[in-house]
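Is phosphoric acid mono(formamide)ester placement plausible here? Inputs below.
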Amino acid sequence: MKSFFNAEDIGDLGKALKEALEVKANPFGYQHLGKNRTIMIVFFNSSLRTRLSTQKAALNLGMSPIVLNIGQDSWKLETELGVVMDSDKSEHLREAIPVIGSYCDIIGVRSFAGLTDREFDYNETILKQFIEYSGKPVISLESATVHPCQAFADLITIEEHRKSARPKVVMTWAPHPKALPQAVPNSFAQWMCAADVDFVIAQPEGYELDPKFTKGAKIEYDQMKALEGADFVYAKNWSCPGVTDPSKYGQILSKDMGWTVDARHMAVTNDAYFMHCLPVRRNMIVSDEVIDSPRSLVIPEAANRVVSAQVVIKRMLEEL
Ligand code: CP
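Reply from A.M.:
I modeled the complex. Tokens:
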């Protein structure tokens, strides 16, 4: 695997899930793969889970992880090509990336969408430069449009808790005070569409995700109707993806608190499990009652971030 970006990069999902459960049962069984190998974990944005789980996965595999916080530990980096560099950004990605690549064997990059220029974000302009100029395998640790390590961890969690061969999984939009990227819902939709589940997206009008991520999903604008009979409820906010109206890209179109997932919503489900990638705004996205209930999977879901990262890094190490 030269890069980990889309669901198709992991290949057969059944095989990947089997490997994930095997790695989870035997986390230190592949330490020989990472001996004398280094992973550089580069953050342009904040993180708790991704930062810790990627390091833990690398350590489990016997690797040395190095974390770099761009603009804090390093110079601020210019990401646009062809600009006069007279701002506070002292170094260009064009030099920084090959330098980073020369110090490691694998690179993980977190670089959120700016939410102002849809073309720049949806072309994955920053991640693609890492792939092109580093000469090393690159993992998206949430880039502008995708968060594949999260979606893989979510799929592992569903696999561990499903009670039927083809569970109903509902991803519902929920309100948030700030404009958030679409990376998590894009990847969750992409992975659920590829998995053997009955997948429904519940959202207000105008929040349609890019169709390249939602092929096969059912879109429902009535949240309660969508949630009926659900086995898993995956709550997430996202800002306007700008699909139907590009001028609204990155905007907040609704703060309707009626979409906050609470006991009333969960009551129409099939005693569903609640999921969220975290960090979560309590009583905006989900009520205390639901996230604190025994049906909440948010902690095991976060724990599985180590497993998903470890499978991806393991596969990359096997190909070095
Ligand atoms: N879910 C997730 O990616 O969490 P962090 O932003 O804390 O890494």
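Short version: The two ends are 9 Å apart (CA to CA).
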